[in-house]
Specification:
Elements lengths: L7 H6 L3 H38 L1 H5 L1 E10 L6 E11 H21 L1 H9 L4 H21 L5 H24 L10 H21 L9 H25 L13 H29 L9
Pfam family, one: Heliorhodopsin
Keywords: Membrane, Transmembrane, Transmembrane helix
């Protein structure tokens, strides 16, 4: 027999006045939280863009985008490498913080929709933002380790985006009033999330580690650390462990997990942003001062 799913309206009726008041307080806190996140992401993005556009060394920090096609001039295909353009790395890095600020602002504009979703254990705004911002982050990290082919980079971007769409699907499949947690979409998303890292580590194995600047290693391992904390938060949220348990009202653990997501997003983006700015401003294999 299929599990009985209680509607959002029916769930609301199960909350007493104290629970409703506490949930309202938490939602007000989330509103202020989103204002803070909008400002913090936006200020850092503007600062990064300004520094990257005015510093001589940072303006020189550009990485190529290439394509390789077969040319049949000798009776058999000969790979031909063509550089299609250069990416101003630091300026583009600011884009993922701009994206975060933009989506937090969207939450504030469409607050009623956001609250309606949060009460049902869903946040489409988060997953659509991650599908763009985290995909851009892994795109840029791939560039640092020598993946310059446009087609490969687009594939990495898209499969990372799919990982986040599986995260959204996991939320849609597991409402707060569920009697069983279905994690199949989570595992599909985990598979998608591993693929870009396999590509990056394959490229690392092809070069001498001593030729890679220390700030690039720092970016890799800092981002990898935070990358792993997101599914951990999701797991704790869905299995209602500790602070993630519904201790105050049905779905209260999801509200806590929502704040954790926002903190992780802020810290991961901030650290990556300033590691790029600080590292690229030092003499290294990419920039010679």
């Amino acid at each position: 027999m299929a599990d009985k799913v209680v509607s959002a309206e029916e769930q609301l009726e199960t909350l007493n006045s104290d629970q409703l008041a506490l949930r309202g307080k938490h939602e007000k806190g989330l509103y202020l939280w989103n204002i803070t996140m909008t400002v913090l992401h936006l200020v850092q993005a503007c600062a990064c863009l300004a520094i990257g556009s005015t510093s001589a060394s940072l303006k020189q920090f550009k990485l190529p985008l290439t394509t390789t096609f077969a040319v049949w001039t000798t009776g058999y295909p000969v790979p031909t490498l063509v550089t299609r353009g250069l990416i101003p790395f630091v300026q583009v890095t600011s884009a993922f913080s701009f994206l975060s600020a933009f989506f937090h602002l969207l939450v504030l504009i469409f607050w009623a929709r956001y609250v309606s979703q949060i009460r049902r254990g869903i946040n489409e705004f988060r997953w659509y933002e991650y599908s763009l911002s985290s995909s851009l982050m892994i795109f840029l990290i791939s560039l640092l380790f020598g993946i310059y082919d446009i087609i490969t980079l687009v594939n990495i971007f898209c499969i990372n985006a799919c990982m986040n769409y599986f995260g959204l699907l996991t939320e849609k499949m597991n409402p707060p009033n569920r009697t069983h947690t279905d994690f199949i979409a989570f595992w599909y998303g985990s598979f998608a999330g591993i693929v870009p890292w396999v590509s990056i580590f394959a490229y690392i194995g092809g070069v001498s580690s001593s030729s890679i600047p220390s700030f690039v290693w720092a970016i890799l391992f800092v981002y990898l650390f935070f990358f792993l904390t997101f599914p951990i938060n999701m797991y704790l949220q869905y299995y209602r462990v500790g602070w993630w348990a519904d201790r105050y009202y049905p779905g209260s653990g999801y509200y806590f997990g929502e704040r954790v997501y926002q903190v992780l997003s802020l810290f991961s983006k901030s650290l990556l942003l300033w590691l790029v700015v600080g590292g690229a401003n030092q003499p290294n294999a990419y920039v010679v001062k």
